[in-house]
Structures are given as structure tokens and as C-alpha cells.
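Sequence, please.
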């Protein structure tokens, strides 16, 4: 019969307080990481963004920028620095002839030229009075240089200072000229302030078209990452050197500041808008690179000042360009370190700043960037809290790898679009929660394992006792059934064989075969609902009552079955039921009286090898209705024909996919088995076919097969 099947998993769960400890500790770890990131986020993310600067493709530099350097060949050709102002005047004129949009000197001329005509004449007193007079009649070199500056779109550098400086002017020096640039928009307090400013020699300073601050202090680790575009000197707002160069190049007066009274967001000059931080600093994405041997590869066209002073220099090199002039000769102090280069020159940093303004090429953090970072961080924490305690460790590791790779890929892609997206806030809180949760789950799991190990030891002792008892019960149950050797000797006129294989150590199937008298053989096959010990006990009771009722003299088959039903139904507190097929075979004529109580229909193998089913009306299983009148149904079994009775362990056998042993497969198994000479071989083949169908899976129910065959008259039982 089909019984109820239940499935349960042995789940080891932590107690309530252990779960609370694990989750609370993970959340505390995430919160502590968040607090740490708030105070140390720049220190953590800057090395990552610096790495992106080094490994990522360099941005395409602006073609509007050119750099002139006073390099080692220039010093060798002209002389040591500082050069005479006359030489600088010639350099300025040479560049101006080509029509640049702006020229910026990335150094300051704080004092008068030392190589004046008067100084030269005084150095050589042996010259004639006429020669000395002629030399002193020459125009002053500062005046010559100032005149060249005045005829050119020159921007002079200034440097703000906060404390004492060797270069700061004397107390009685004239106040610096006010900036030429005009500003609109908010001017927040975050803009850098300077106590004073170092300016150029007055004769030069007044001739320049613009003035800009060259201040660009490094970060705490000594690297230049940002350049201020604005600064206050004595409360007056001044543009940076790079910003002033762009203003002069675009020939506009006004610089627009965008943002709020508390923080800037961008600076706009004519059509150029560049993103800045709250204090007006632009973070540079460097276009320059260094080779493995440390040699600088300039991002912008770079020319030696000595080449420009010579005849034959390209007359179109500076056409419509912003030209920056700086120092790169050995021994100069304008050497800085950037994320892209360990040694770079200040003039190239200023060129990067100009480039950033021209094409909005600075690195920026949009307002949505921190919201995205912390939002994803919160999401990953929630996923960790909900998923890590329940998920398999392999899934946790795969999920962590996916999160880490995804966050860093998104950050790198954003950087290539000049957006600073920090993966640390996305990952660190969730990672802290996951790591501590896994660690505490391991600790708590070890504690639970210790408890379970103790309980398991107790269960093993109990199981050992139970196993011994079940083994004894199995032996007793097996002893109640006729062994196959005794079945073969029930009657010389009939060949009988049967097999019972319980799904567990003990089962609920039963079979029996015995002679009622010299002319009648009785056999029965039954199946108790359920499996295991309860079914085996009810099976023993059913078998004993069945033989007792069926061996009574002058008792009809239907009356005997009704008596069995009544006795089993009495005091059946467990509401168990039995399907039962009882048959009485007359040996002389093959008359077969059958009585079925909810059992499988038997099969008959004819003399031609064909299998047919004996369909019986029967009634419900025993113990379902104790007053049901079970009918006797009569058939005939000819000599040589085989009757096969079985339990539903045959028809409900399942393969690993859950498919049942179909009726066609049952008929095929019986047909093939009937070809064997002996019933023992036939039944063994049927059982083997069922087990092969199950493919090693656990049997779904007890399996019993009984077969009997009328021997021809005069045939031997051997």
C-alpha cells in the first residue's frame, strides 16, 4: 500500500541570543568602519586614485598649450640662471612674433637686473671715458624687458605667503598692483588666504597684461595633486597663474564663480568651465608620464629657450597658443612630485592646470558620488546581514569577489571619465560585517558542535541499543515467515516460492502458504500501512490471526476474512490498516477462490507465456470497515500456469528522478521472469529488475512477491 511520507532535515541553528550576538557584532563592526572612513577616507582613497593615474591611459593633452624651458642646453648656450633681462626681452619678442594668445613666466623677478649698463661700466674702470659714457647711455635692461612685456600678452607670476619668507618685500615696498581680473558669483571662506604676496620688480610688474598666483602646496605626503585657482591677498581675490593665462588668452575681463556661499563647484572663464572643490582647487589628471628609467615624457610640445633664440626656429610653433616659460635646468628649485611622476617640473604642473581649465579636464566628485558610495555601502551591509548567516561559504566568497571586482571596475571606469568614485565606502562596511559575522559564526558553531557532539554520543549509545533490538526483531519477524526451502515442500502438487524484502530493518509486508486439508492449499499476501517497527508488530498480529481464522474447520473463505477484519479492528488505537489477498487453490481441478481486501490484482502467466491480470472486485483494506462483506471470486488455474501475487513495493518502486515502476514494466518483468525453469529464479529476476530500476536509491516501500504454479499430474516436486 501507499503510505504517508515525511522528510525532515537535521538543521543546526544557533539559539536566539547567539544569533543576536552575531548580527549585533557585525553591525557594530560596520559602524566602526564607517566612522574610521569619515576621518581617514582621503588617506585611503588617494593611493588608489594615484594608482589609476599611473596605470590608466593618459588623457589627450590640449593642442592649445606649448612649453618653453630654460633647460641644461639653454644654460650652456646663454649662461647660468638668472639670465640678463636683455636676453629675456629677446626671448619674449621671439615668441610674440609668432602670435601666441598668452605668454606666462612661471617664475618671479623680485628685484632689478644685476647686469645693467651702469654695473657693466663700473666693473671695467679701465675702459675709456667715451666708452663708459656710451655704455651708460644704453637703455636699462629692465626697461628693455619691460617694453617687450608691455608689447606682449604676458602674465607675470606672484606667490602668496602665510609666514616669514626670504622673498617677501620690505615693509616700505609699494603695495602690489590689484588683479586685472574681475569676479562674479560667491566667494566662500574656503578659498585660501595669504598674509602677503611676493611680486615682480615694479618696472616689470606694471607692464604685464595679467598677474596670477603660482601657489600650489603639496599634500601631506609631498605629492602635488591639486592646484588652487583662486587666492585672497589682503582680502582681495586673485586668480591663479593658470586661470589668468586662460583669461588673457580669451581676452575677457570677468571670471565667473559657481557654487554657494559655503562652497564652490566650478570656475568659468568665457566658454571654459572647470570643476573645483569647495575652496576653488582643481584636482589634476596628469597627462605627462615617466619612462621606467625616470626620463620625463612631456605631454605638451616643449621647446628649449636656446633654440628659440637661434635663427631658423619654426615660425609657427606658438601661433594661437598659450605659452608657458619655466625652469628645468639642473640646480633649479622648481622640482615637484606628482602621482604620475616622482620628479616633475612646476611649469608642467601649471600647464596641466591650464589644460584642465580649457577642456574641463580636472578630476571631480559630483554630488551624487558620495551618495552612491554610501548608498551601495549600506546596501552591501544589509545584504551581508541578511545573507551571510544563511548562505553557504562558497556563495559568500563568490558574492564578495563579485562585489569587490564590480566596485573597483566601476571606480576605474568612472576615473577614465574624470570622476572620482571611491570603492572603499562601498566595500569596507559590508566586508567588516561579513568578516566578523563569519568569524563569530565559526566560534558559535564550534560551541554548538561541542554540544551536539555530546548529544550525539548519547544518541549513539541509544542507537546501538535500538540497533540490537531491531536486529532481534528482524530475526523474529523473519522466523515467522516460511523460508523458501519450506515453501517448496508445502505440496508436491504445487510449486510455491516467495520473497519479502523490507524497506527498513523490519517491515509491514507478510506472506504465508499452507495446506488447509489434503485437497486445498491456502496462500496469502498482505501489506500493513507504514514501515518500520509499528508496521512489523501489526504484521505479526495480522499473520497470526489470518492463519488462525483460515485453518478453522468448516469455515468459508469469506467468513474467515470477515473474522480477520473484525479481530484486527478491535483495539486498533493506531488506526492501522492491512491490504490482504487470500486465495484457496483446489489441487484436483485448479479451482481458485480469491478474496481481496484492497490489495493489488494478481497476475497469471498462461501456458503460452502471456500475462493476464485477474481483476477482483474485493473490498477496502482490513480495519477500514469492520462489517464489510468481502466476496469470494472464483477463477481456475490450469496445470503449468503461474499465479503471481505482490505488494505495492513492486508497483510503487521509484527511480532517482521519482518516476514509478510502470504497469508495462511490471508485466515485462513477470513475462521475462516466467521463462525461468524454477519459480525461485523467476522471483529473483523480478526483484533484481526492480532494484536495477531504483538504481541504488532507498526503496520506497517493503517489497513482497509470491508465486505458485500447478504441477502437471505425475510431475515430481524435485
Amino acid at each position: 500500500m501507499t503510505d504517508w511520507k515525511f522528510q525532515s532535515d537535521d538543521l543546526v541553528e544557533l539559539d536566539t541570543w547567539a544569533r543576536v550576538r552575531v548580527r549585533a557584532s557585525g553591525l557594530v563592526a560596520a559602524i566602526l568602519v564607517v566612522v574610521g572612513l569619515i576621518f581617514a577616507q582621503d588617506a585611503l582613497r588617494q593611493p588608489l586614485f594615484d594608482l589609476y593615474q599611473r596605470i590608466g591611459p593618459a588623457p589627450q593633452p590640449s593642442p592649445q598649450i606649448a612649453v618653453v624651458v630654460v633647460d641644461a642646453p639653454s644654460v650652456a648656450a646663454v649662461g647660468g640662471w638668472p639670465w640678463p633681462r636683455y636676453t629675456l626681452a629677446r626671448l619674449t619678442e621671439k615668441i610674440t612674433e609668432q602670435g601666441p594668445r598668452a605668454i606666462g613666466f612661471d617664475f618671479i623677478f623680485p628685484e632689478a637686473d644685476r647686469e645693467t649698463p651702469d654695473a657693466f661700466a663700473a666693473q671695467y674702470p679701465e675702459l675709456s671715458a667715451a666708452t663708459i659714457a656710451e655704455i651708460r647711455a644704453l637703455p636699462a635692461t629692465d626697461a628693455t624687458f619691460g617694453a617687450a612685456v608691455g608689447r606682449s600678452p604676458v602674465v607675470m607670476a606672484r606667490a602668496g605667503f602665510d609666514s616669514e619668507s626670504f622673498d617677501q618685500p620690505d615693509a616700505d615696498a609699494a603695495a602690489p598692483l590689484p588683479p586685472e581680473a574681475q569676479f562674479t558669483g560667491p566667494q566662500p571662506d574656503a578659498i585660501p588666504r595669504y598674509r602677503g604676496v611676493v611680486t615682480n620688480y615694479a618696472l616689470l610688474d606694471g607692464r604685464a597684461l595679467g598677474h596670477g598666483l603660482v601657489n600650489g602646496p603639496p599634500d601631506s605626503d609631498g605629492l602635488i595633486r591639486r592646484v588652487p585657482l583662486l587666492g585672497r591677498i589682503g582680502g582681495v581675490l586673485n586668480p591663479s597663474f593658470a586661470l589668468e593665462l586662460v583669461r588673457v588668452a580669451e581676452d575677457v575681463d570677468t571670471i565667473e564663480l559657481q557654487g554657494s556661499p559655503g562652497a564652490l563647484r566650478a570656475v568659468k572663464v568665457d566658454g571654459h568651465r572647470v570643476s573645483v572643490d569647495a575652496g576653488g582647487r582643481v584636482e589634476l589628471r596628469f597627462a605627462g608620464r615617466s619612462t621606467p628609467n625616470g626620463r620625463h615624457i612631456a605631454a605638451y610640445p616643449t621647446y628649449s629657450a636656446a633654440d628659440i633664440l637661434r635663427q631658423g626656429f619654426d615660425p609657427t610653433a606658438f601661433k594661437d597658443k598659450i605659452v608657458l616659460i619655466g625652469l628645468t635646468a639642473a640646480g633649479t628649485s622648481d622640482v615637484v612630485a606628482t602621482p604620475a611622476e616622482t620628479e616633475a617640473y612646476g611649469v608642467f604642473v601649471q600647464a596641466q592646470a591650464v589644460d584642465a581649465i580649457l577642456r574641463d579636464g580636472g578630476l571631480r566628485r559630483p554630488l551624487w558620488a558620495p551618495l552612491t558610495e554610501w548608498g551601495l555601502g549600506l546596501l552591501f551591509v544589509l545584504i551581508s546581514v541578511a545573507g551571510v548567516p544563511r548562505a553557504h561559504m562558497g556563495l559568500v566568497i563568490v558574492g564578495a569577489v563579485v562585489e569587490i571586482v564590480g566596485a573597483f571596475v566601476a571606480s576605474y571606469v568612472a576615473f577614465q571619465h574624470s570622476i572620482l568614485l571611491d570603492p572603499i565606502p562601498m566595500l569596507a562596511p559590508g566586508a567588516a560585517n561579513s568578516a566578523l559575522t563569519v568569524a563569530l559564526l565559526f566560534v558559535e558553531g564550534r560551541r554548538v558542535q561541542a554540544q551536539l557532539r555530546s548529544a550525539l554520543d548519547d544518541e549513539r549509545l541509544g542507537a546501538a541499543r535500538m540497533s540490537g533490538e531491531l536486529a532481534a526483531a528482524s530475526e523474529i519477524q523473519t522466523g515467522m515467515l516460511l523460508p523458501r526451502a519450506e515453501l517448496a515442500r508445502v505440496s508436491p502438487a504445487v510449486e510455491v516460492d516467495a520473497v519479502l524484502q523490507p524497506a527498513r530493518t523490519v517491515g509491514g509486508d507478510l506472506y504465508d502458504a499452507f495446506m488447509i486439508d489434503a485437497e486445498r492449499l491456502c496462500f496469502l499476501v498482505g501489506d500493513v500501512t507504514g514501515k518500520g517497527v509499528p508496521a512489523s508488530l501489526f504484521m505479526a498480529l495480522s499473520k497470526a490471526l489470518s492463519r488462525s481464522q483460515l485453518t478453522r474447520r468448516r469455515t468459508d473463505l469469506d467468513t474467515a476474512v470477515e473474522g480477520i477484519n473484525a479481530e484486527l479492528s478491535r483495539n486498533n488505537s493506531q488506526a492501522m490498516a492491512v491490504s490482504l489477498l487470500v486465495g484457496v487453490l483446489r489441487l484436483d481441478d485448479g479451482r481458485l477462490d480469491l478474496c481481496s481486501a484492497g490489495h493489488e490484482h494478481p497476475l497469471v502467466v498462461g501456458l503460452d507465456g502471456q500475462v493476464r491480470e485477474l481483476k477482483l472486485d474485493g473490498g477496502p483494506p482490513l480495519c477500514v470497515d469492520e462489517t464489510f462483506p468481502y466476496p469470494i471470486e472464483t477463477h481456475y488455474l490450469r496445470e503449468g500456469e503461474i499465479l503471481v501475487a505482490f505488494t505495492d513495493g513492486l508497483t510503487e518502486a521509484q527511480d532517482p528522478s521519482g518516476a514509478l515502476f510502470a504497469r508495462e514494466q511490471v508485466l515485462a518483468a513477470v513475462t521475462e521472469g516466467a521463462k525461468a525453469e524454477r519459480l525461485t529464479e523467476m522471483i529473483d529476476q523480478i526483484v533484481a529488475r526492480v532494484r536495477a530500476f531504483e538504481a541504488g536509491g532507498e526503496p520506497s516501500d517493503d517489497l513482497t512477491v509470491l508465486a505458485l504454479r500447478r504441477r502437471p499430474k505425475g510431475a515430481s516436486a524435485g
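Residues 1-12 have pLDDT under 50 and may be disordered.
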